[in-house]
Design a protein that fits this description.
The structure is a single chain. It is built from eleven helices and two strands; from the N terminus they run H-H-H-H-H-H-H-E-E-H-H-H-H. With 273 residues, it is mostly helical. The protein folds into two domains: 35-125; 129-174 and 185-267, no CATH class. The protein is globular.
Amino acid sequence: MIARDGDKDDPLDAEKLAQLYRGGYVKAVHHGDSLARAIFKQHVGLYHDAVRQRVRAALRISSLLRRHGVFVREKAFVKAADRPALLQRLPKSRTLRMDVRWLWKGYDLMAVVEDKMRRRLVQRAKQVEVVRRFVDVPGIAWVRAAMLYVWLDTPWRFRSKSALWKYLGIGLERRRSGNGPEYLGVPPMVHGALKSTILGAAKSAVAQDDNPFADQYRRWIEAGLSPKMARRNVARSLAATVWGLWKNGTAYHPEWVGVAAAAERAAEGLPKR
């Protein structure tokens, strides 16, 4: 209505925006309440950018080596001592070997930047009381805790667990057209970094084994769910736990995990899971 309409100038755009607002078609957008929080959020985002740049450089090196018959992954050239042996496996071309060395120099620089930014991120995260409570939850370490803290910003922006799950990319949405079948599934357009954070936390919690989230995972597997669905359910349980201790200002209590959900199901007359 505004961006793609024919005539455009400030008075016209302002009038259209007012019309949308009066009609209830303008959604609220959440903003942080302090410059310090915004800068911390920016730092977390730049750290993830640094990780992507390091991975991109590693893939470029692996691709170049593969092109000449050397099939290795990043871990094969992380240490400088392992690199001469890889060079010996390449064709005897001075230009090719110099190119690989230059790519390694760029990779090393990006790895150093990533490491320093991670150290600064953890140092900053340890100063936040809420984040210190987050890391007590299985599967959540400092980087994931900081990611959840800066992107969710406040627990009060979500009216329910379902709204939180949808924002994290692990909730379900319903779609239906006319009398056709109803589609129930995970929305495709989500915040990729947040979704990866909470699903990665679920995977780590399950791998740690000795915690209530790993117990939930085993019960869901025994009930016939696929590993993918069981991990997503664990991610929802993790998100609900973090959200609850954030709202209530309490510490993590393993015995509380799943208690609220079990009580809700008991009230509805449904079997416990």
